[in-house]
Amino acid sequence: VQLQASGGGSVQPGGSLRLSCAASGFTLAYRAVGWFRQAPGKEREWVSCISSADGSTYYADSVKGRFTISSDNAENTLYLQMDSLKPEDTAVYFCAGDRVYGSSCDSGPVFTSWGQGTQVTVSS
To answer: Using one digit for the tens of pLDDT, what is the confidence trace for 91-119?
Structure first.
């Protein structure tokens, strides 16, 4: 099982980035998958989750209205579109998935598969 995150970079406040997470040995369909982030000196925090079976999406209050999570089950890839970025969004972003078939974001998913992280820096 491998999750490969990419798309991070450095942007100015107000800018946009699109993160991707390619899965191998792990099918996103009918599983809960999501994004987490960890800023320097802080604990890892949940950002967003999508239940791939029905497309239901969930967001942390800090990113709601600015970030959009999506998944392409045919390409087995997870995305996070990040708009109106703020300096406080600076962190290493990780993708993660619940290996249990049929898992959903609203039923207490257990994220046991993790990508390696991609750095997002928002600074002027």
So the answer is: 999 999 998 888 999 988 899 899 899 99
